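Worked example

This section walks through a single chain of length 277. The input is the sequence exactly as stored; nothing has been trimmed or padded.
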Amino acid sequence: MRLHDRHILLTGGAQGIGLACALRFASEGAKVLVVDKQAAPDLAQAFETAGQAKGNAERLASKVDAERLASNIAWLQADVTARSSAETALAMGIRLWGRVDGLLNNAGIIHGCHFLDLKDEDFDRVMAVNIRSYFVFSQVVARHMVSEKLRGSIVNMSSVNALLAIPDQLPYAVSKGGVNQLTRVSAMSLAEYGIRVNAVGPGTIATELARHAVMQSEQAKQKIMSRTPLQRLGEPDEVAQVAAFLMSDEASYLTGQIIYPDGGRMALNYTVAAPGA
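Given that input, the structure is written out below as tokens.
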């Protein structure tokens, strides 16, 4: 298992991509501590549900191993924007495992609003979760890695909207642009310590966040399909597989990179006909 003996803090893991990453990391041998404002879901049930989407052999293995795998995920209910939460999470990880050598910054929120109507407090709230928490957790964990001489890995969750634009999602797009630069600059700063920093920039993934943000209607969904060459939404686990690769030693010569699992959207310079259009 490529994440055997990896000990990972993960922010924003109660649902969607974050939960898929927690499940994927644990299934690949990692110990995971999720930090989220929400209480933990039924993790054993989540493993079983994930297994049901796969073949019969994997489904049976998932049912047998669900409780064992769930025991590899610990939970801290906390506000990710507070530095004290990062420090508490690190202390908990050290108490549980003796060290922390991986971090996935995934927590994220949106606020849809026309540019002319956007309020300061809504802009600041998105920035606090989507970029400030990434800086704080990265700094707290990186200081630990440096002091313990750990050649760890940090992965940040970006988005295609770091480079592309949705008119009513200014705070989200600005925060993800910041995530890309946080990734590059921290990667350069930490390279001398053997700490790698990379990011994943998903396209439109089948999550609750996407349904509320950009797929409120069938017409909206068709618009997404018209600019997605693979002609389907991505699945959360498809993003989690990329994050697991970047977290692992298989990506040992990658740092400062952003990988976009987007169904081809970033390469497209025209729209394609969507099914049923």
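What to look for: The chain has a mean pLDDT of 92.
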